[in-house]
Amino acid sequence: MGKGLFITFEGIDGSGKSTQSRALAKVLADQGHDIVLTREPGGSPGAEEIRQLVLTGDPDRWSAETEILLFTASRRDHLEKTIEPALAAGKTVICDRFADSTRVYQGATRGDLRHTVDQLHTLMIGREPDLTFIIDMDPATALNRGLARKSGEDRFEDFGLGFQETLRHGFLALARAHPERCVLIDGNRDADAIATEIALQAAARL
Ligand code: ADP
Ligand code: TYD
After folding, report:
1. Could you give the CA distance from residue 195 to residue 88 in angstroms, rounded to a whole number?
2. Distance (Å, rounded) from C-alpha 50 to C-alpha 45?
3. Which of 12, 23, 157, 161 is least surrounded by CB atoms within 10 angstroms?
C-alpha cells in the first residue's frame, strides 16, 4: 500500500486549528480519502496521559527543559502507535499540532532552547509533515477565544498576551524557514472562508 499524506495544523492558542482540522478531515473523507484525525499532545492512550501532566496546573509547574522531554515522549508514543501505522496503511493523517509547536513554545519563548528541541527531535522523532498549515491571527482575539472555552487545559494561555505575541512571531519565522511544506493562512476571517482556502491548498498536494 502507498504512503498517505501527513498534514499538520499549527498556530497560537485559539487560532482555529481544531476547527480547521475537523473541516479538512470532513472534506477529504467526503472525497473518499481514508483519514485519521488526531492531535498533540495526545493522540494515543499514553500520550493523552502525558497531556494531562503538561496542560493542567500552575504555569510554573514545569521548566521549559522538562516540557521538551514530556512533549517529545508524548510525540514518540503518538508516532509509534497512531501516526506511523496509519501512514503505512496508506491513510492520510491530519494532526492538530506537531513538532513545530515544540520548536516555538519550548524552543523560542523561555530562553533559547531551539537547539535542544532540534537535537531531541532528530534523535527521537525524525519525521516532518508533508504539509503544514500555519494559521496566523491577532493574538488578543485568539487568546479571548481560547480562554472563553474554559477547557481546564489553559496552562499555556495563562502565560498571557505577551507570550502569545512571541509565539506568533515564532510561527511566522518557521513559515519563512520552511516554505516547501508550510502554508501561511490568514485566520482573521470567518471559519468557512478559511476552510475553503485550506481545502484548495490540500487538493493541490493530494
Ligand atoms: P485552536 O484549536 O487553535 O485552539 P479552535 O478551533 O478550538 O482553536 O477555536 C477556538 C474557538 O474559536 C472555538 O470556540 C471556535 O469555535 C472559535 N473559532 C474557530 N474559528 C473561528 C473563526 N474563524 N471565527 C470565529 N471563531 C472561531
Ligand atoms: P492545544 O490543545 O492544541 O491548545 P489550543 O487549543 O489552546 O491551541 O494544545 C495544548 C497546549 O500545548 C497549547 O497551549 C500549546 C502547548 N504545546 C506545547 O507547548 N508544546 C508542544 O509541543 C505541543 C504539541 C503543544
Report:
1. 27
2. 9
3. 161
Q: Is the CB of 145 under 6 A from ligand 1?
A: yes
CA distances from 52 to 4, 74, 101, 185, 191 (A): 30, 11, 17, 29, 28
Kindly report, residue by residue over 14-29, the tens digit of the pLDDT.
999 999 999 999 999 9
- pTM of this structure: 0.96
Domains and CATH numbers, the chain: 6-205 (3.40.50.300)
Q: Strand order in 182-186's β-sheet?
A: 35-39, 92-96, 6-11, 131-136, 182-186
Cell matching residue 205: 498536494
Closest-approaching ligand to the CA atom of 137: 1
Task: Compute CA distances 68 → 5, 64, 81, 123, 166, whole Å.
Answer: 26, 6, 20, 13, 18
pLDDT band at residue 3 under the 50/70/90 scheme: low
